Structure formats: structure tokens, C-alpha cells
Amino acid sequence: MRQRGRMIRLIALGTGLAVVIAACGSGKKAPSTSASAKSGATASVVMGTTDRVVALDPAGSYDLGSWTPIYNIYQLLLKIPPGGNTPVPDAATCAWQNPSNPVVYMCTMKAGQKFSNGDPVTAQDAAYSFQRIVTIKASNGPSSLLSSMKSVTASGNTVTFTLTAPNAVWPYVLTTGAGALVDQKVFPADKLLPDSQVIGSGPYKLAKYVPNQLAEFLPNPNYGGDDKLSNKEFIIRYEQNADTLVSDVSSGAINVAYRDMSPTQIKSLQGKSGVQIVYGHGTEIRYLNFNYNVMPGSNTAQKSAIRQAIAYLINRQDIATNVYNNTVKPLYSMIPQGLAGHTDSFKQMYGASPNPAKAKAALQAAGVQTPLAITLWYNTNHYGEASADEYTEIQRQLGASGLFKVTLQSAEWSTYNVAITKDEYGIGQLGWFPDYPNADDYTAPFYIDCSAATPNFPNNHYCNPAMEKLIAQEEATTDQAKRNAIFAQIQTIAAQDPVYIPVWQGGQVAAVGSNVTGVPSTFDPSYTFRFWLIGKK
Amino acid sequence: MSSSTGSLRRYLVTRLALVIPMVLLLLTFVFGLMRVAPGNPIQAALGGHLSPAQLHVRMHAAGYDKPVVVQYGEYLRQVFTGNFGTTITDSRPVSQIITQNGAATLELTVAALFVALLVGVPLGMLAGRMRDSWVDVSARSFGIVVYAAPVFFLGFLARLVFSTYLGWLPSSSQASVLVQADLIPHSNILILDAMIDGKWGDLPDLVRHLTLPAITLGLLLAGVFVRLIRVNVIQTLRADYIEAARARGVRESRVVVRHAFRNALVPVITVVGLQVALLLSGAVLTEATFNWPGIGNELVFYLNSRDYTAVQGIITVFALVVVAVSLLIDIANAWIDPRIRYS
Fold it and tell me: How far A386 CA sits from the closest chain B CA (Å)?
């Protein structure tokens, strides 16, 4: 009985304590808890995101969620400057040994660069950084980005890359997360370093990391680069879903909500007090993929006509407006706007608005019976919540012409991405997120498919030797004017007999507190989110 | 050694022996289920970006193309040596997920249990004592509604009312960002960590973040308690010894509080244990609703990523917790009631 009385008292005491503590905190935020309470050049900035970190060791990650902190912790040999899309020196100055034959690339390290632990950044560290990525070959690592690297050596303060074949886009590879420089005294040669132990020579050092919850970055006292910091502390909060991202930026719990809010969520934040929506240039694309083996059509001519007819009928502007509230732009080439070499080849060939008459003519010329029953596949969870609406809109557009009878089918990503490469989907949705801002990244992975050993990534059985030759030519020249001319030819061929139909190009968007500055400056085709540019008024 | 001690020992040995096939069956089931589901972590992460050939090289290196039997053997060997492996998706040791995120789940479930007892026990007693009155009807209705309503629905409703409309409580996470950045993880139970370091100023923030998830999950269990305790109180109030107490002239309030309520509470101990599984499954949904960084939240993510290693590790831990609690309850019951040992 006495024990029971003690128990009741204990419960009552605990309840009372909890109520008192909650009451103390209710209605007001503790000064230390309000991210928005601090302002000025010495402010702390808190960013929320639904991206996840795969690894903070550059050898273990090949995703934007990891590369965002990596770009801020580590230096690269070359980097993409804010607003730009061409590499400039970061920790080194680089040049081709022979620009007319881009096979050997040499980088000279800048003097005075140090890791956050005080170790100098050397050419040996740089060579080590690349070599260990190839050695470790982590499951989720970027080793495939370095597949054209034959060898990397260091001599004095010079790093020399020898490539397996001429590759003019190699400098762009160096600007990716795969090019992050690590300290060979800290990072093991044959395995990944635990996330909490990583150090680099970039503007920030990792101060605290709780996986999938929080990462805190403080200025690197030994940073020897050019970038000036607009804040004294940058914190990332990892959110499970975009709903919490929206509520947290609305309440001021976070200052920046970045990736990945739906168009509806963005719209709900527009006009909200204390929140501004910031748009920026992006080069993420969505397109329709056609599998040559299993798409409708009884012969090559019919299949080609069906693809052309669909290209005539899709109204990209309606998709951008009705489905995405104009947060995306119509795309008329696989190479997005903003990249050197882009042309609106699909607009030139099929027009900016639907043309049912030409679509009908193309189908009739090939002897395709209309209305033709086709199945469109889309994915339910990988390309955003609006995918279902997007494909319903496409179904409506194609059906309205009377030429197609469209059935929609969908699958969850784990099923979808396997099935689409195994000849199970004739026509399906796909998307592409760039490795680096160069037109080559939007052509080589898609149009090189003639060798059975190296199919393109959708494995759609496309093969055009002329296209492969052109891609080899653009990769072999460093003359941008020549490359642009080649890309123009590539895009024309791609539109004439489309294996992909580009639909839209995504922009970058963030919801930020009204006193937050610098986000528009970091939005560019490289998708480098530069913490140092973000400050508060 | 007395015969009762010996029989208890035999009982314990038998129960412990049964745990092994139970866990083995469960491990096999989880392993099979993950392999039946399409895709693997590498395809989920890099599919749509790498060619099938490049994906195959990575899957081969990770051993995903080995015969399932070989993978099963490796999996069992790992589990029985206490090594749950490292996740493919984000290179985290599963043991780290269990200690770090498991601590957040423990914090939530303990708080939820507290809420359940606080709400369920008094309401159940009142309902039983005032049978068929409006209090009873209200308490029963409340119990049915909170038990039947999906926990995520209650969670969204609570977020909408107390966070979005009224702005009283935070809608997500375990702590405000700057508070969490300030805390040094000792136990990974943030309230405890704040106390250990004497950061009392952080406690209001932590309690405010805990309030909505704990109430949401706690109400689920409170619904069970209300109904159970009500029935027990009604039955106890009909018992002979209660009548005898009344006949002796004991005051009615004393009869109810000291005799009826006390005995009606005994089955709750068993039920609390049995509800651990309900709490854990509820925690998965509650954590997802409130972005609570618990082990359930991680499970959802790893399931979507088809991360075999992580899912197998987390479910194994869930299972072991449920099995351990069930075992403890059996032992407690056997200790209290000798008939159980012999049956």
C-alpha cells in the first residue's frame, strides 16, 4: 500500500513537472532556440531539406544530398563560380597539356591552402583523393565519373591526369563532388572515413553531425580560398518530408527550405508573411523515354511515326502552367536552356504548340491505324508528387487529338527503374539530374548505345552511329564554338527521330525567411549550394 | 533448493529455448520478404542515372547477385555474431541507428506510456465505478475513438490544431535546431542529455517538442487501458470480498479506492507489456507524422530505399524487444502465479 502511494506521488510529481516545464516554454521560444532571432553578418543560418546524406567522404557519395555539404567542407581543384557554368580555379590552376588533344590535364596547386586540421593541401593529397575513389569503388560512390581517368600522378605541386581518350569535359568532372580534396593523413586509402570525422580545406568545417537529423558547419579557421563568409554558422536540418519543411519555414524554425517542395506547397507559401519564394536557374529535366523493342508499332517506320506524332501533340506550356504552376519551363531539347550548345530543336521541328494535323499525317504515312492504344508509364515517388498530374495531362492531350487512346500505368521507383531497363515499359517517364553543367552530360549517357557492352542508361536499344561519332567529336575538342556546332547537329538528329521527347526543365526554388539574403546568387546550373553566400539582413 | 524454485527454473529454460526458434523464424521471414520485394538499395539510389552495366558491377561488388541461400547464411552469421552490418544507403552502422535513433524512440514510447497511464487509468476507473452513467458512456466512447482512429490521423489533427492554427506547440522534430546543435549526445535521449549537462534552459523546448507525439501515441494505448480497467473495476466491484467489506461497514469510498481499484490494476501490468508491440508499430507512424528521429522513422526511409541490411537489423531489434518484454511478463506472471509454471 505504501509502495502504491509512493507510485501515485511519483506520477503526480512527474506530471506536475512536465506541465510546469511545458508551461514555461509555451507561448514563447527560448532565445537560443529561435533561428531567426539572430541576424546580421554574424548570424546563424538554418536550412531545412528533405535530401539525405549518403556519405560525407567524397569517395562514398554520388548524390546532391551529400555533395551539398561536401562542396562547403572541401576544396576542389576547379569550381563553378556563382551564376556561372564554366570551371574556374579553386585550389589549383589547370590546363590541358595539348588543348588540341585533350588527354593530359595538369593542375598546379595554389600556395597557402590548408586543411582545417592545419595540414597543407598538396598535389599528393589531390592525386590521393582521386586514386582512392577508384580504389574504394564504393557502392554509392562516384567512381564511374572517373572512368575516363587512366592515371593520376603528383610531382612537386603539380597533379597530372592522363585520360583513356580525349575528353574535353574532364575539367567539369573536377568540379563535382568526386573532385573534393582530402587529407591523405586522415582519410584511409581503402575504405571510407566515418562521416563525423571528415575534414577538408573548404570554407567550413563540420562541427557536429547527427545522421539524418542535423549537420552544423562552422567557419574553417585555416581556409585559404577566396570565398568570404556571410554567416558565422550554417546548420542543415534533415526533414523527413516536405510538409514539415513548409511548416518549419512558416514558423521561422528554419530560415531556408530547400528541396523538395511540390508546386502546391510552394503556392501555399506564396504571400505568407515573413516568407519569400526564391526561384533560380536549374537544369534538371523530365522527358519521355521510348524503348525501341517494346514500344507500339509493327515496324521501324511506324515506331518512328508514333514518336513523332507524340512530339507534335504534347503541349509543354500547359504542363508547366496547369501542373507545375510555372515552377518549371517547357523544354525543347534534351540539353536544357542555360547550357552552352542548347538549341530548341524540338520547337523548330514540331512547333511550340500542338499540331494534330501533322501528327495525323505522320501516322497515316506510316500506315498506323488510329486511334492507337498506347500505355504510358510513370513513377509515383521518385520524380515528385506532381508526376501523376503531369501524366494525366499528357494522357488528356494525346487523347484529345483522337489519334491515341492512352492508358496510364504507374509503379513505385524500386520496381520502375528496374522494369524500364528490362524492356517492360514501351513508353515511360524518366528524368535526369546533371553531374555537371555541360551539354555532354545530357547527350553521351543517352545517345551512346550501339555497343551491347555499354548500353545507354535506359537501355532502350537506340543505336545511331552518326550520333556516336558526333559525341566523340565534341568530347575531343576544347574549342567551345566547335562543340556548340556539333551539339546543334546532335540536337537536330535527336529531334528528327526522337528516342526521347523532352518535356520540361526544372528550376531551383527555395522558401526563405524575408530577412535571408544570398540564395538567388547560389542558384545556378551547377546545383552548388554555397553556404557562404547565405546571410541575413 | 525448494521444488517451486526448481519448477520456475525449468519454466524459464523452456521459455528461453522457445525464443530461439521464434527469432529465427522472424529473421527468415524478414529476409524473405525483403528479397521478394523488387529492387535493391543500389538500384533504388542510382537507377535512372547509371547504365544497367554500371549498376550490375556495383551490385556484384555488394554481393546482391549471390544465391539467396548464401546471402541468408551470411545474414544469419552476422546477426548471431552481433554484427548487424552497415547500411548500403548511407553507410551507417546499424548498431548506430539502434543506439542513436532507438534512444529517440525510447524517449517517445516512455512518454507515450506515461500519457496512456495518466489518461487511461483514471478514466477507466471512473467509467467502471459510474457504470452506465454519462461519465461511463463518454469514457467508453473516448476509449473507442482514440483506439480506433489511425494514429497518423490523430497526429495530423493534433498538428493542425495545436501547431498550425493555435501555434502553441512545434509540429516536428525532437528539438529546435539550435538546441539540438547545442546538446552533447550522451544517451541520445535529449531530455536526459540536457539534464546531464545541466542545460535546464533547453528542457522547455524539448518537452514542447515531445508533447504532441507523446500524446498522439499515448492516446492509442489509453484507449486500451480505459476499456480494460473499466471491465476489471466492474468485475471487482461485484466480488465477494467487496461485498464483505461493505457488510463490515467500510466506507464506500474506501471500498472503491483501496479494494476495487487496486485489484483492477493488476492485469494492467500484463497488458502494458503486451502493448509494447502496439507502441512500437504506433511509434513508426507517429515518428513519420512528427518527423521524430526515431528508429521507426528510419525504418520507413530504409524500406523505401530497399536497404536490406538496415531493415533486417531494425526489425530484428524490434522483434527482440517484443520477445524480451513478453518473456519478462511471462516470468513475472510465473513468479506471481505458480499455476502458470505447471500448466
Answer: 18
Instruction: Name every residue whose Cβ is closer than 8 Å to that of residue B109 and which is 6 or more positions away in sequence.
Output: B217, B279, B280, B283
Residue in A14, A208, A244 nearest the CB of B114: A14
Inter-residue contact A30 to B203 (CB < 8 Å): no
Q: Give the three cell numbers for residue A494.
A: 535527336
CB atoms A212 and B90 under 8 Å? yes
Cα(B97)–Cα(A80) distance, integer angstroms? 36
pTM: 0.86
Rounded CA separation A328/A263 (Å):
9
- The amino acid that residue B232 corresponds to is N
Question: How far lies B65's CA from each of A258, A286, A459, B55, B202, in Å?
Answer: 37, 31, 20, 11, 49
> CB-hemisphere CA count at 13 Å for A471?
22
Cell 580545406 belongs to A201
H/E segment holding residue A276 = strand A275-290
> Which pLDDT belongs to residue A385?
84
Alpha-carbon distance of A429 to A395, in angstroms, equals 12
Test A417 with B47 for CB contact under 8 angstroms: yes
pLDDT band at B338 (very low <50, low <70, confident <90, very high): low
List, edge to edge, every strand of the sheet that includes A104-109. Answer: A92-96, A104-109, A158-163, A149-155
pLDDT score at B80: 81
Query: Nearest Cβ partner of A26 from B37, B159, B168?
Result: B168
Contact criterion met (CB below 8 Å) for A241 and A262? no
B284 is written with which cell numbers?
513508426
Tens-digit pLDDT profile for residues A400-443: 999 999 999 999 888 898 889 889 999 999 999 999 999 999 99
Q: What residues in B contact A190, CB-CB < 8 Å? A: none
Which parts of chain A sit beneath pLDDT 50? 1-8, 10-40
ipTM above 0.85, yes or no: no
